[in-house]
Amino acid sequence: MPRWRKILFSLLGAAALAAGLVLGYLLVTKPDTCADGVERIDGECVGVNGEGYDFGTPEITDVARAIARENKRIEKQPYVTVAMMLPLQSDREALRRQMRSDLQGAYLGQRQANAGEGEPPKIRLVLANPGQDYGRQSKVVDTLLRMAASPEDRLRAVTGFNLSLAATETAVTRLTENRIPVLAARISGDRIANQDRPDGMAKLRFPGLARILPTNDDAARALADFNGERGRQNLRTVLVYDKRPDGYNESLAKAFSRIEEKGPAGPAAMSFESPSIDEAGSTGNQFTQTANNICDSRADTVYFAGRTLHLRIFALKLAEVGCKDRHYTIVSGSDAASLRQDMTEKDWARLRGDDGRPKVTVQYAAPAHPDAWTTELAAWTKRYRATHDREPADRDLPQYLTEPKAALDALRQQISATENEGTKLGSTPDLADSRTMLVHDGLITIGKALHQAQKNDPESVPSREDLGRQWPLLQSRHRVQGTSGLICLTTGGNPYDKPAAIVELDPGRKGPGTLKFVGLGWPTGKPQPQNCVIPSSTS
């Protein structure tokens, strides 16, 4: 063989070997994808997708596809992208149902915002899964930052956020530092909030952050306002709190400890320590000791600063200790809205005891309840008749009740419309747990801000900065009529005097227990002012 041919074959062989090595490296290092934009990491499907992918959670398959169809419908019109960021995988069936409720609210809010009066921009909604307990949030935030810079994606806001964790705080911090507006629909922890000052200004730790759920401190004050009308001075209370680092638990415990008690002193606060949000660990054994100590005291009301999983265990233990002829009321925060979904018929029976009488009732400040506005309007009308000796005219009815009722009626009509047109959402939305209502309100709040920020050119879309500047303007004439109450945002992006729906989980005397709306509590001690005009500190 000629020398030149030997050299040629050697070069070809080396090139083939190099190509093989490169191909092998790419095959080995190529990410294992679950779907477009979603990577499989240690069994979790982490990433961003708006094309109907359900992240391996069958409960959300139908609603994820409904969102994708709405995205397809508006793709030829001026639109912006909004990301719904929350964990979308779980081994627990109850948590998967909660995810479905959240996404049902997101879809219904997207539809309503896109309907509007036909004005642009429309909302393209994408789902962003940061992994369990937001453990992979950094990778998802990387993607969202790229989408914000993309002229095709035009990411303008991130919403969702259902857990007040350190990882959640990190994600919100990084997003807002990069000028991406965040609308936290379901965070109640005090740490992830801007601080409003008495002079009407605000300390913007998270520039561009808005919330529509009262902080735990506001919720505790709303509970105190509600119970103040019902003889709180006769109650003996005790605080039971989780020592595990958790923004929700910490702020709720602090808020409960600030409530001024007028009745006789109860026992000292008692702590426990859980392993995580969704693990019981040894809490059952800890609660047995705590329940016995409460039984030996004269306390009848327990402030519980902990997550739903542990609240359920504690309530059952308190019912089991067998304090003779004692009835306890456990008071907790917004996370308790998920408690009813975790209860079994056996659990209800344990809360009742052998004689069928309730031994434990759970009361909490829910973000919303579908019976709130009708019930409160009926009570208000009854009081009006008694003092005025006539029926109230429409103009007499309180705006803080009528406008949320109208918003809730519109949401119910929209649910009926989706069913009539054959759109499947996995189930008929259950409004009682407040999730669908609250996430829906978050999307329509973003929609209103987008439409107000829109310039005269219908083909252009607002910038991130334009949208972020709208949050503190959503008050007075520009208030948002939410199903969970009027949303009027302060300079810090916090909801002013947003009411808490006080609900009770009552085991009853037989069968499954009931979730009953019992009244509204107001953080300031009085309803929101006319037109939701936020007063100055000197007003």
What does this structure look like?
The protein has 539 residues and is of the alpha/beta class. Among the domains are: 35-214, Rossmann fold (3-Layer(aba) Sandwich); 217-366 and 502-521, 3-Layer(aba) Sandwich (Rossmann fold), CATH 3.40.50.2300. It is 40% helix and 17% strand. The strands form 4 sheets. Strands 1-2-3-5-4-6-7-10 form an 8-stranded mixed β-sheet, sandwiched between helices. It has a 7-stranded mixed β-sheet with strand order 12-11-13-14-15-18-19. A hairpin with a 2-residue loop joins strand 16 and strand 17. Helix 9 crosses helix 11 (345-352). The mean pLDDT is 89.
Number of strands: 19
How do the strands of the widest beta sheet line up side by side?
1-2-3-5-4-6-7-10
CATH architect. name of the domain at 35-214: 3-Layer(aba) Sandwich
What value does the Rg take, in angstroms?
26 Å
Distance between the termini: 101 Å
Task: Record keyword descriptors for this entry.
single chain, alpha/beta, Rossmann fold, 15 helices, 19 strands
Structure summarized in a few sentences:
By secondary structure, this protein is α/β, with parallel strands linked by helices.
Summarize the helices and strands and which ones pair or pack.
Layout: H1 3-29, E1 33-35, E2 38-41, E3 44-49, H2 61-73, E4 79-85, H3 93-115, E5 122-129, H4 137-149, E6 155-160, H5 166-177, E7 182-184, E8 195-196, E9 202-203, E10 209-211, H6 216-228, E11 237-242, H7 247-257, E12 270-272, H8 283-296, E13 301-305, H9 308-320, E14 328-332, H10 339-342, H11 345-352, E15 360-366, H12 372-388, H13 399-420, H14 435-453, H15 464-470, E16 480-482, E17 485-487, E18 500-506, E19 514-521
Parallel strand pairs: 4-5, 4-6, 6-7, 7-10, 11-12, 11-13, 13-14, 14-15
Antiparallel strand pairs: 1-2, 2-3, 3-5, 8-9, 15-18, 16-17, 18-19
Helix pairs in contact: 2-3, 3-14, 4-5, 6-7, 8-9, 9-11, 12-13, 14-15
